[in-house]
Amino acid sequence: MTRYVFITGGVVSSLGKGIASASLGALLQARGFSVRLRKLDPYLNVDPGTMSPYQHGEVYVTDDGAETDLDLGHYERFTGVPANRFDNATTGRIYSEVIAKERHGDYLGATVQVIPHITDAIKEAIVRGTAGLDFVLVEIGGTVGDIESLPFLEAIRQLGNELGPERAMFAHLTLVPYIPSAGELKTKPTQHSVKELLNVGIQPQMLLCRCDRPIPENERRKIALFCNVRAESVIAALDVDTIYAVPISYHAEGMDREVLRHFHLPADGEPDLSRWQDIVDAVRSPEGEVRIAVVGKYTNLLDSYKSLAEALAHGGIANRVKVHLDWVDSQIFEDGGAVHRLEECHGILVPGGFGERGTPGKIEAVRFAREKSVPFFGICFGMQMAVIEAARNLAGLRRASSTEFGPCDEPVVGLLTEWARGNEVERRMADGDMGGTMRLGAYPAVLSPGSLVSDLYGGATRIEERHRHRYEVNVTYRACLERTGLRFSGMSPDGVLPETIERPDHPWFVGVQYHPELKSKPFEPHPLYAAFIAAAVRQARLV
Ligand code: GLN
């Protein structure tokens, strides 16, 4: 029997609903249940793929090539369950499906309306492909009271009713602020937020109360009384020093026990949280520290690089060191004088990115890493920058560039118009749609035996990693670039698309066309990130 837990948020955004949902998933898993997490996003974009990172943060790519909300990254990192395209639905997706059906004549004769057509489509999206699972956790984006989220709330209300309490539960995340002048925690915002939910017919059975200190028994009882919730189900969601301590903290507050109690499942035993305890111990007692410069464009918005930051932290866990990230805006390199900022770092990473702005600084950062033998990791755009750097500074192709920035004489990075997906060929036109048309999702790469990258994958010669790019290193320049000491160590199986590069004459210099950070987990750090941090540890001992 599949049970559904719906998680809504109130009072303000950014309370950590994604982490709360992911943590509940981890706790249920630790008790032996199978779980899947889903996210419903009430905005009109069909997916977040075309949104600026300033607007939306990172776009998380699934194996099956969907561009999704960054919370799906938390879900994967906490549960290890690979997300798929059905795990994230937006208002835009739901409406476009309903409108396409209307045009097709599927509703012939009917007036197509939000209720029941949109709400039915939302309900279908929630349950699609979940048969056989023990638990499905469904997070509703946004804050209760927003106009946009109404159809989603109506749909989960209906679904809750249809499934009944033995198969459905509502949990609501709120804020319990401490007011210093009064010296008290305030419960009123929580009461108001639950009233908003009641207005749309949803009575939550559990409240997750974000607060910066323990909730005194009195306040807990007050919240329970006013909000119609058992006092034991008023769970304090306390601030913690690392997100990987959240499952342990929620467990200590009784979250998993109360969810099981709601569903009349035995809750006497303890879940096995040793995995989380080990991670938290490694984070809290590092044996050293390394500094990594991340040279990018959106460095003032850390959410843009969520998976990257987590994967670097996982590399730290693997090496038992704290990874200090120095977010460097590449534009400060443009005068050539800011390179000294890199001198204090033990590793330099150029992450994924789009557009020409800030690229001269990224290329400078690659050059610095190459010339000064500092460990270098180029991700996607970062690998493309490394190739342009080698072409310009070593191969003598002064006009080498990417066609992403306009037509150029030496297109060492060019628009990808055709590539193989299994036995199919995908084609794109230069003036085609921007949404959902990149080379997206898991693709295989063939690694040269004996290369550094192959060694790091445990000697594997065939790997699969997730991609999100429209441009690609131009294979016709391969021989010319290899003469400069750059090794093309990984290629697409048809040998056309460079997937990894490395520099055998350098302590650690790797570029990958894919995003390995998307598959890194705290309990299973990605080998490339673990090795990059290990190289930084070696570097730290040198300086
Ligand atoms: N802008 C580059 C491309 O489209 C790189 C994309 C990325 O870094 N994800 O190929």
Features:
543 residues; alpha/beta; Rossmann fold; 7-stranded parallel sheet; 35% helix; binds glutamine
Tell me, what is the CATH class of the largest domain?
Alpha Beta
What is the C-alpha radius of gyration, as a whole number of Å?
25 Å
What is the straight-line distance between the termini? 58 Å
Count of DSSP E strands? Answer: 25
Which architecture of the largest domain would the CATH scheme give at its second level?
A: 3-Layer(aba) Sandwich
Number of helices: 18
Ligands in the structure? glutamine
Shape: globular
Question: How many domains comprise the coordinates?
Answer: 2
Q: CATH superfamily name of the largest domain?
A: P-loop containing nucleotide triphosphate hydrolases
What is the mean predicted local confidence, pLDDT? Answer: 93
Helix content: 25-40%
Sheet having the most strands: 9 strands, mixed
Which secondary-structure class do the elements indicate? alpha/beta
Beta-strand proportion: 15-25%
Walk me through this protein's architecture.
The protein is of the alpha/beta class. It folds into two domains: 277 residues, Rossmann fold (3-Layer(aba) Sandwich), CATH 3.40.50.300; 199 residues, 3-Layer(aba) Sandwich (Rossmann fold), CATH 3.40.50.880. The strands form six sheets. Strands 13-12-14-15-25-24-23-20-21 form a nine-stranded mixed beta sheet, sandwiched between helices. Helix 8 links the parallel strand 10 and strand 11. Helix 12 packs across helix 18. It is globular, with a radius of gyration of 25 Å. The mean pLDDT is 93.
